[in-house]
Design a protein that fits this description.
By secondary structure, the protein is mainly alpha-helical. It has two domains: 10-282, 2-methylcitrate dehydratase PrpD (Orthogonal Bundle); 292-361, no CATH class. Helix content is 51%, strand content 3%. The protein is globular.
Length: 362
């Protein structure tokens, strides 16, 4: 029964197949997003949002610094030595390399420890600070100010979170790096001074070849879970630079016969006339180094351990009741068995391990 429920398509009030394309003559969604990007104004950002953005920057840098000694960072630096690159951008932790490679490594550093921010919605989630590495590289390569960087970051948060709000990405078997491709392209377009038409092409280029699969979250969880967002950001930044040179992309990204509307079996309707840039105020920070679905579980176990002061060796069995998707992705459900975690990537996506670690170590 459970397998049958997971395999069922998400059904909503989206209408029949023929209604999933825009009406004739309607402006493509990528052009609507591009106009939103071009009109974004730092002066319209309220004090609370500016504070949230600055808080996010500090938290994100801290996440990256915490990952400097991790295996992926060392491996990528070795990769960069082999491939070289025009040293235009700074690497967190020291050194310089090309903008695309800087976007990759700095994004991987942000994600690796798995304590970065999260945006939650009824249809799923995303990690908006995945944008940070690529947006930072775009700002540095174009010699932008901190004010410009914060505006671009706010744009990225808005694009990624608005898409996440209305599209059940992971329920369709896709990874939330998909919407990241569009948000990075949008922010980079603003920093690199693309025209609205170039921006629309940049978003189309970035998303068309970054339809990332949710298999990266399936057991055995590999390095790629943490590298996938950086890979997407790297390609989106490079594609944005190509769009500035005049390369074009599929403007029917959403509405075209084989676009995102068809992929998700819904008309993706987002109000891009809304100039708001407050998405950073809606994100949450993790308290523990683990997937966001595990945060309340860890909190509960630690509270029980503190209140009852039992000896963990006396515990014969633990029964945890969690919401469905937490079980599927981290409890041994649809994403695979959680009985034998062997790596960091497996451990922080494993409720059994996280509960045991909290009970044993406090």
């Amino acid at each position: 029964m459970l397998q049958q429920e997971i395999d069922q398509p998400i059904i909503g009030a989206w209408g029949p197949a023929e209604s999933r394309s825009s009406s004739p003559g309607a402006e493509p969604a990528v052009k609507q997003i591009a106009r939103f990007v071009s009109r974004a104004d730092f002066g319209s950002i309220g004090g609370d949002t500016k504070l949230a953005l600055k808080r996010t920057v500090l938290d994100t840098i801290a996440c990256a610094v915490a990952a400097l000694g991790g295996e992926p960072a060392k491996m990528l630096r070795e990769q960069f030595k082999e491939y070289g690159g025009n040293a235009l951008c700074t690497l967190i932790g020291g050194g310089r390399t090309s903008p695309d490679q800087a976007a990759l490594l700095n994004s991987v550093l942000v994600r690796y420890v798995d304590i970065l921010d999260t945006y939650m919605s009824p249809g799923g989630l995303c990690h908006p600070s995945d944008n940070f590495g690529a947006v930072l590289a775009a700002a540095e390569m174009s010699n932008r100010s901190g004010r410009d960087f914060l505006l671009a970051l706010a744009i990225a948060y808005e694009v990624q979170c608005r898409f996440t709000e209305v599209v059940p990405v992971m329920f369709r078997g896709l990874n939330h790096a998909l919407q990241l491709s569009m948000s990075v392209a949008a922010a980079a377009s603003r920093l690199l001074d693309l025209t609205p038409d170039q921006t629309a092409n940049a978003i189309a280029i970035a998303a068309a070849d970054n339809v990332s699969l949710a298999v990266v979250h399936v057991e055995p969880v590999s390095h790629w879970k943490g590298i996938s967002p950086g890979w997407t950001g790297m390609r989106a930044l490079y594609g944005t630079s190509m769009a500035k040179k005049g390369f074009t992309g599929p403007l029917g990204l959403f509405e075209g016969p084989n676009g995102l509307n068809r992929l998700f079996d819904q008309t993706i309707s987002i109000d891009w006339t809304n100039p708001g840039l407050g998405a950073s105020r809606k994100t949450v920070f993790k308290k523990y180094s683990a997937l966001v679905h595990g945060q309340p579980v860890i909190e509960t176990v630690l509270a029980l351990r503190s209140q009852h002061r039992f000896n963990p060796e006396d515990v014969a069995e633990v029964v945890a009741e969690v919401f469905q998707f937490a079980y599927e992705i981290a409890g041994g459900g649809h994403f695979g068995s959680k009985d034998r975690p062997q790596t960091k990537e497996q451990a922080d996506y494993n409720l059994k391990y996280l509960i045991s670690a909290a009970l044993l170590g406090g």
